Amino acid sequence: MLRNKGAMFGLIVIGAAIFVAVTGYFIAPDASPDANRIIVEIGGRKPGFSQLFLLLKKQGSVTRTSFFYRLLYGREDRYDYIPINSYMQQMDSLIVEKYVDEGVAERRAYFSPTGFRIETRRFWLGTDKYGRDILSRLLIGVRVSLAVGMVTVLLSLSVGVLLGALAGYFRGRVDEIILWLVNVIWSIPTLLLVFAIMLVLGKGFWQVFVAIGLTLWVNVARIVRGQVLAVREREYVEAARALGYSHTRILFRHILPNVMGPVWVVAASNFASAIVIEAGLSFLGVGVQPPQPSWGLMIKENYNFIITHNPVLALAPGVAIMLLVLAFNLLGNGLRDALDVRV
Q: At the top level of its lineage, which domain of life is listed (predicted)?
């Protein structure tokens, strides 16, 4: 697989996505929980713009967080961010021209015996309509895409491998029942099936993952069934039966380890499919709920900008989805070539 340039590109992109998912709150410009720092005055600004801010310490104490808590959930802002055009210090007071809107400013005075903190922030991908940093939400949002893919693959492999193995090994009545279930699930459009499962489970973060995982197992089951049917008559399986081994031992120790090659290829494909389905569900409003950043939700919140003055706000998460899905598809092609299997 190392000689397959496409697969290596996919592996690099996936590795970078995992690194960003783990360290997101340390490398994102907005490290607040869910990258949800709302500054309405600068909403809908174009990529690359800079803004001067007056940072005022929040009233009351801000909860201190441990390293691991910040790694998982971010850290609450210690300051209020006030956009300004200019400022002038007089003794313990600061006279500022507060930015309200394009061409609109308001003059204000602030007093602080401990001094003031002034910063210039650059928003490389612009801000959404709520004034949140698109780059930060893009970086934190990769967690949702990787998480839904991982949970989906685990669920689809668990259900699909088990049912496919039982159908291929025992054949007969068991095979007929499982094939009937596979055909029924196969005949229902994926999104409709996900909607039906979510009506039972409810809307939410983990419910989305489970619902998607329970719809993508049929591919795995069909492939495992076919592989087990081909392997169950091999000499080493007949020898295991002659030695009196149980069906469970034969199936899980002698058959399944020899048929998993094609399954890993399908797992990569399911990972990519799960990312696209989750993005579609979030765009429709039944997936990940705000303010949690999801690439599909970001497209939904900013798609109006495509036909106005700032299309990057919606195109950036779309390009991110495309790159990650492409990476998993290229990795799947590399696995197929490396394992020399035909799916």
A: Bacteria
